[in-house]
Backbone:
């Protein structure tokens, strides 16, 4: 396993993260299934974790209301299979949350989390706010949300 401190987490282009998204989140489906609505909106932010040029983790945030309130939706979060449970996902999520705060749009984040991943999000301060529902191509999910503390200036 690589040293987590040697992994670079940075803003990324969709083209840099799409193959990992496809491999981890849409295995067995055409590659196009890993492109999500909103990926190309100007206010959407993609993030990648890289070793050299290899993307080993990714996440996306986009502006989507949650219960009639301005918010960020977290989508397409994935970590290479051999690095899951290594702490990399937590670092990626921290980076996404900080970026959301830096944008001055909203401090509310939400996502449709796969049921097996819901414990990860709960450990990072997210709350389950729905019953389990089935998401096409991806299995059972729950809605989760987190309100970030206001940014200290």
Residues:
């Amino acid at each position: 396993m690589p040293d987590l401190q040697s992994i670079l987490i940075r803003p990324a282009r969709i083209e840099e993260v799409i193959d990992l998204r496809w491999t981890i989140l849409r295995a067995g489906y055409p590659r196009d299934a890993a492109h999500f609505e909103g990926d190309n909106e100007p206010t959407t932010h993609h993030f990648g974790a890289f070793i050299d040029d290899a993307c080993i983790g990714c996440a996306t945030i986009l502006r989507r209301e949650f219960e009639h309130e301005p918010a960020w939706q977290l989508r397409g979060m994935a970590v290479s299979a051999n690095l899951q449970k290594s702490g990399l996902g937590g670092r990626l999520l921290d980076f996404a949350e900080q970026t959301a705060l830096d944008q001055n749009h909203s401090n509310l984040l939400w996502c449709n989390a796969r049921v097996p991943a819901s414990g990860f999000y709960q450990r990072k301060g997210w709350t389950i706010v729905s019953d389990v529902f089935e998401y096409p191509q991806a299995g059972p999910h729950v809605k989760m949300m987190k309100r970030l503390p206001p940014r200290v200036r």
